[in-house]
Write a structure and sequence with these properties.
mainly alpha, Butyryl-Coa Dehydrogenase, subunit A, domain 1, disordered N terminus
């Protein structure tokens, strides 16, 4: 089974969503770094923008982003705020592994689908 990638429109919307967050993320970065705190406000913004669930297959309620699209988003977010880029990267990697299994391992679909649906439904990281 081959992964179906997002459309050009979806890709642009993921990139546009990431770009729309860069100014505020860059403004918050020094305070987060100086106070050694998690980028909670930025993470909430990533959820609202749909970037937390971007890598979940669209059949399961996510954005259906390809690896290339996710990399573009991570590059943009990481450029604005390294800590936010790292947090999103750690989450995105886990989602991408499960999405790959869903696309490529028929026997794993029933095992990974509930977690992927949960990420899409809650726009949240694994709890």
């Amino acid at each position: 089974m081959t992964q179906v990638t997002g459309t050009a429109h979806q890709s642009e919307s993921f990139v546009d969503a990431a770009k729309s967050l860069t100014k505020v993320f860059a403004e918050r970065a020094p305070d987060n770094d100086e106070n050694d705190q998690f980028v909670a406000e930025n993470y909430a913004d990533l959820k609202t923008a749909g970037l937390i669930s971007a890598g979940v297959p669209s059949d399961l309620g996510g954005g259906g982003a390809s690896i290339r699209e996710l990399c573009d988003v991570l590059k943009i977010i990481g450029g604005a705020c390294g800590s936010s880029g790292l947090a999103l990267s750690l989450h995105t990697h886990q989602v991408a592994v499960l999405a790959w299994r869903w696309y490529n391992q028929e026997a794993a679909r029933d095992l990974v689908a509930p977690l992927l649906r949960r990420v899409a439904d809650e726009k949240n990281c694994f709890a």
